[in-house]
């Protein structure tokens, strides 16, 4: 199984890539928890200066994974994961940049809005 996020350290930048291109980077509980942990880890590292969020594949993020959301036993955990992820990104002491290409729908748009800056671009 692929890792739901990839974390790269380049110079003073922490680059976090949503890594579920086959599901349009839809947000699962696992992905949201790992994303929050990666942002927290970057905040704790004195050598980090900026966090960049991006999506693998054709777009940034399609929002909540609707397949997982169909499980009525996960609604509360999913809501908690969304809230924690957005709060962690929004309150990061490091500047957060959403590098958005393609779609940013629903929760993906929320993730983009939680960042300090969003940059849209077209890959050629």
CATH class: Alpha Beta
SS elements, strand count: 5
Q: CATH topology, what is it called?
A: 2-enoyl-CoA Hydratase, Chain A, domain 1
What is the level-2 CATH architecture name? Alpha-Beta Complex
Encode the helix/strand succession as letters: EEHEHHEHE
Spell out the blueprint of helices and strands.
Elements: E1 5-10, E2 13-18, H1 29-44, E3 50-55, H2 66-69, H3 75-90, E4 96-100, H4 107-114, E5 117-120
Parallel strand pairs: 2-3, 3-4, 4-5
Antiparallel strand pairs: 1-2
Structure description:
The chain has 124 residues and is an alpha/beta fold. It is built from four helices and five strands. It has helices at 29-44, 66-69, 75-90, 107-114; strands at 5-10, 13-18, 50-55, 96-100, 117-120. It has a five-stranded mixed β-sheet with strand order 1-2-3-4-5, with helices on one face. The radius of gyration is 14 Å and the shape is globular.
Give the structure's gist in a few sentences.
With 124 residues, the protein is of the alpha/beta class. The chain has four helices and five strands.
Task: Provide keyphrases for this structure.
124 residues, globular, 2-enoyl-CoA Hydratase, Chain A, domain 1
